[in-house]
Every structure is written in structure tokens, then in C-alpha cells.
Request: fold
Amino acid sequence: MADPALSIRAVTAGYLRDLPILFDVDLVAEAGKITTIIGPNGAGKSTLIKAIAGLVPVTSGTVRHGGTDITGLRPDRMAAHGIAYVPQTDNIFRSLTIRENLDLALRRAGLRRDAIRARLLAQFPALQAKLGDKAGSLSGGQRQFLALANALATEPRTILMDEPSAGLSPRAAEEVLEMARGLTETGVTILLVEQNVTQALRLSDHCYILAEGRNQIDGKAADLLGDPVVAEIYLGGKRLRVGA
Amino acid sequence: MIGLLSYLVFFATVATILAIAVLGLNLQWGNTGLFNGGVAAFFGAGAYGTLILGGTPQAGHLGGFAMPYPLALLGGMAVAAALAWGVGRLTLKLRHDYLAIATFGVAVAFENVMRNAEWLSGGAKGLRGFERPLQEGIGSGLAYNALYLAFVASLLLLTYLFLERLVSSPFGRLLRAIREDEEAARSLGKNPAKVRLTAFVTGSVIMGMAGGLYATFYAFVSPQDVLPILTFQIWAMLIVGGAGNNRGAILGAFLMWGAWTASGWALSRHAPVEAQIYAGSIQYVLIGSVIVGMLLWRPQGLFPERLVVSQSGGATRPAPAK
Ligand SMILES: Nc1ncnc2c1ncn2[C@@H]1O[C@H](COP(=O)(O)OP(=O)(O)OP(=O)(O)O)[C@@H](O)[C@H]1O
Ligand SMILES: [Mg+2]
Reply:
């Protein structure tokens, strides 16, 4: 089997040195697949994504991307390693126009920047029509598209997305997740956090359940969808017990 | 008549020079969000640098190296750049409030070094031995001062045009992006620390240029010229004018310098004799009141930044979309 795109081994991480939020977390994201992370509020999902992106210090364990150890790399170096992180909120620059947003992200693309911009706009026709508008004027779904386009402008091999569908109408959420699905067909690896469990399981190939900063269950999304335990925990509204 | 004209030229020259410094601060605070509490140090670095490099050799303190004037002024700006680079490397990691305190400390230290290191700066007596450029040909009357005003005004214009271009350049876009959302900018591969340092040094170089021009105008600089009050004056000008707006920054400089000199004049004229000795302190109180008043009632300044985006995400746009 080929190297997984992203592999996280026994990662302990937290915002403050003596206060870990994640404990010995393991996770593997296969290349060209969608891997989702689900879990209750405060489980550490965002923290895990940020730890991979270099925004939260990793105190032990390793993060490897395509065979390279990227543990603790500075966040602004991640783009050069083919990793793009789309934050949960504030993931676009509202005071800049759509075009300025893209150009900012395209700054390193050099000669290929016009070509990449054209390709992105073909991919996101909704943005094409609003190039000169301030990003702050976009609707929720369009913002997520722009955030995704910004991320793609750095030509990543792996995209980390934190709740891209949060706060969107069901239709917009569907569109954004469809878009993510489409991206994997071009070989991009996606690791995303999703609130809506059913949707997450339907959409993804592999799914990790996190609670209180620890791995709980993980498996093929299709298997988990039919799993009575998961169904009870998530669809029956019961809280997940630690160490279950 | 000539007296009034001379006075107006004098007034406009100082206001213009201060406006240049306010533009430097606007790049740091208005465009980048860096709270520089030590404007006086960078202004002073330029002032001392220019006079030491451009002055005639003096016994008792460093310099002068009698360099041609343009080189001396550029050298003064380079001294400001070096100071800003060092200070920036050490302090830009700090949060707003700590950055303000740290840079304020730098300015206090700078003033004290200038006051005490006689070998370097002439100490409390200040730095003499500088001759204003082209003085021999033109003399030191109104004609010279008018020409000098034209010179500083054209530098103000150049600085303004440079900053306007900078703000709309990719670098300016990056500044706005980082100010708006640092994490998102970092994820796109931007290094905010580097960008901030660049803006900090550039703004300080502009302050250094203002300091150099100021010292050139008086052909003299002493620790009295780099007191913390200067930092507050420059800040008051920016706050009154409107942070983020270069034109506002310039107007704020003229308004506040006008208010400052007018209050000084009025106090010396009309205040009771017993209060005269406190006139300086009363001016300090006035400037403090202006800063506090503006922050309370019109924090965006008289001429706010043109681009306003509300925190909730909706852009408030004064003009309807085309
Ligand atoms: N910047 C921060 N500094 C310190 N602690 C934080 C910070 N952000 C989050 N935390 C803490 O880390 C823990 C995990 O938070 P995290 O945001 O990772 O949860 P989450 O699983 O993403 O939750 P949600 O579903 O609400 O997004 C929480 O206890 C939270 O209080
Ligand atoms: Mg979260």
C-alpha cells in the first residue's frame, strides 16, 4: 500500500504547554480520500486540525505528510509542503475583494498565477461574477467557496477543513461538501471536521470519532453508518462515554 | 506683514515635517496595527544621525563627518532603520499593550543616552556644528525658509504618494489581510512576523526622515527635541486625523500643530502671570484631553479609513454597488 497522505501518531498537543487538549491521538488520512473527524463540542477536533497545521504546539508524537515529518513546522511553511488549512470561521479576508483574496493566495504562484486563477474561477463560477466585490459581501456558502479557492490557490496535496458546512443552509452545505468530494477526484486528500454526523458518514471514506481529546472509534464510514453503537451515541442523542 | 509671512512659513515647515512623521506612524498603526509608543526615538535617530553625519567636525562629541546633505539625511534614515530593525526583532512578538510599553521604554532610553553620552551626542547641550545646506548662497532669511518649506513639502508629497501606492500594492493587501486575520494569512503561507517587521522599519525610516528634516531646519538637536511629549503629539495628530487614512494623518498634523501653537500663544498672552510657569503643563493637559476626547467621541478620527468592514462580516459600503 502507498504511503498515507497524512499520518498522525500518538500526538499530544494543547494551547498551553502544561495543559494538553489532545492525548495520544492517532489518525491516518489516505491519499485522494475524504477522512472526517466527528465528536461532541469541545472534543478537540479543531485543536487536532490546528495541531496538524502547525498552529497549536505538539508536545509529543509525530505528524507526517507524504513521508515527510512536519511536526511543529511553522504554519506559514505548511503551504510549501502542500498542506492547506481552512479555518472554521474567519477563513477569508472580508475587507479585500474576491480577486484580491485570490491574488493574495496566489502570490507564490509566479508565472502560473493567471492560469491557476482562471482554473479556480472555472471551478467556482459563483466567484467569477463577483471578482470586484468585497469578500465580506458574500453569502455563507460563497464564503466557504472562496475559502476553498484560496486554499486551492496554494496548490495543496492535502486540505484540512474545519466544519466547512457550519452555519450554512442545507443546500449550501450540500454544495460545499459536493465540492470537497469533487476535489478528491483530482487526487487531493481531504481531512475535515463535520458536525452533521449522518452527512459526515455519507460523505467520507473513513471516519474518526474523537471525545475529550482522545480517539474513540474509527472505521470505514459505511461501517460506522450501520454501527448500532454509533447510531445510539450520535443519532440517539446519548453522550459519548470516555474510553467506550 | 513680513513678520506674519515669516511666521506662517515657520509654522508650515514644522507642521509639514511633523506630518511626515504622522504618515510613518500611520503605516505602523493605521495600516499594520503596530502600537509604536516610541516615535520620539525613531524621529530622534534620524535627527541625530543626520546632524552627526552632515555636520562639521566638533571637539567633544562624535562627528561631524561633513557628508553631502542628501547622504547625511539618508544616513539619518538608515540609523532610524537600524534602530527599528533591532527593536522590531525584539518586540514585535509582543501584544499591542506590551509593544507600546516596550517601545515607550526604548524612547525613554534613547533620550537618556542622548542626554548622558556626551561623546556621542553632545549631551544635554545638544549637537551643534551643522550648517544648513545651500545656506551660503541663499542666506538665512525668509527666502531660505520658503525654499526649505518647498523642499519638505515635496518630501511630504513623495512620502504620501509612496504610501498610497504601498497600501494598494500586493504588500498593502498583505498588511490588510494579516491585520484582519492572522491565522488565515499564515495558512496561505504568509509570514506575519516578516511583514510586520518590514512595515515597522519602513514607518520608522519615515519618522527618521522627519527627524532629520526637523534637525536640519533648526541646525540643532538636543534631548529636549526627543521627549516623550513628541510621541504623544504625533499620536494625537494621527488620532485626530483618522488612523488608516493618509490624508487624514496630514490634516491631523496641521490641525494639532495649529492647536498646540495657538494654545501656547494664548496661554503666554492671557494666562495670569502666576500661571505662566505652568503654561507648558497646561498644554500637556490639553493634548491629553484631545486624545481622550477623540477616543471617546470620535475614535475613527475626523477622516476615517475609507474602507470599513464590520466585525459581524457584512461590509458597510457607503456607495451602492455598480
Ligand atoms: N485558543 C484556545 N486556548 C486555550 N484553550 C482552547 C483554545 N481553543 C479551544 N480551547 C479548548 O480546547 C478544547 C477543545 O476545543 P476545540 O475547539 O478543539 O473543540 P472542537 O471539538 O473543535 O469543538 P466544536 O465542536 O465546538 O468546534 C476545549 O476545551 C476548548 O476550551
Ligand atoms: Mg471546532
